[in-house]
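Contributing new records

If you add data, match the layout below exactly. Sequence lines come first and carry their own label; structure lines follow with theirs. Keep one chain per record. Anything else will be rejected by the validation script.
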Amino acid sequence: MSNTIDTTQVKLTPKDFASGQDVRWCPGCGDYSILAQVQRVLPELGIPKEQIIWISGIGCSSRFPYYMGTYGFHTIHGRAAAIATGVKVSRPELSVWVATGDGDMMSIGGNHFIHTCRKNVDLKILLFNNRIYGLTKGQYSPTSEVGLISKSTPYGSVDYPFNPLSLALGSGATFVARAADNDPKHMQEMIKRAAEHKGTAFLEILQNCVIFNDGAYDAITGKENRTDKMLYLKHNQPMTFGKDNSKGIKLDGFKPVVIDLNDGVHSANDCWIHDETDHDAARSFILAHMTDHPELPVPFGVVRQEYKTTYDQAVSNQIAAVTEKRGKGDLQKILRGGNTWEIA
């Protein structure tokens, strides 16, 4: 069986990727935007929809496979990455995607997530991060901010939240990026970049839950704040942001600082030049943790990308090598041969 995806010219449209099922998310939910952007991007990839499969766990985000006109598997809580790994290893020619949430992937699914990244399984993981458990009615999640008042933290959460980008980087994901639900054009670009990557592609999408955590990202992505709080990363380009790109980010040792590019002292030449292929992981972690500092903008785009052999390709290569050396196995012979035991 071929390990490559058939990308012969297939003329598809976003409607071809709609399942026809009634989409059941709350009105105004950011999930609608994610679904729309995925359905707009997939036709551009030239992959037959029969060769695409969506795997999900449990949560609002995990309804995603029902709404996609592709193959799909709605699995169990936190196990989407593990099951998707099995799909990719057994059917390496498929394009395998995971739709998950911060509760599903960062909590009960955390162990599966880090080992998926470590192994570099060729999966495309979209994390819908709304900082809350939505489907189970508003409990705080592993990404909820300190002090969040929720159904399960009526006096405010005292937990320190996970940083999904940092976790993905530390676990070895070979593609790590961030997008926002209210910037569809940029999200499309990031989904396409993830699709084209060979290896574990992790895309965190800041997504609003209008019912249980409305406005969770207004301080970053809201209309009044986004100009000064959203830093769009561009490969080999200086990190600039603000109105007319009047501000920049400069590295002072390992500390990112904001500089004024109109003060007559600084210019774009003083800015940190983004290199998404940088093999020095330290700078990637600096970018990931800029969210921890309110005085800094939040990076969006591809934080880091590298290429190395994927787990599924390594397994396929190993099977081919052993088969060439020892021949094809005989399952019935194994089951019926060797030592046997009789149980009285």
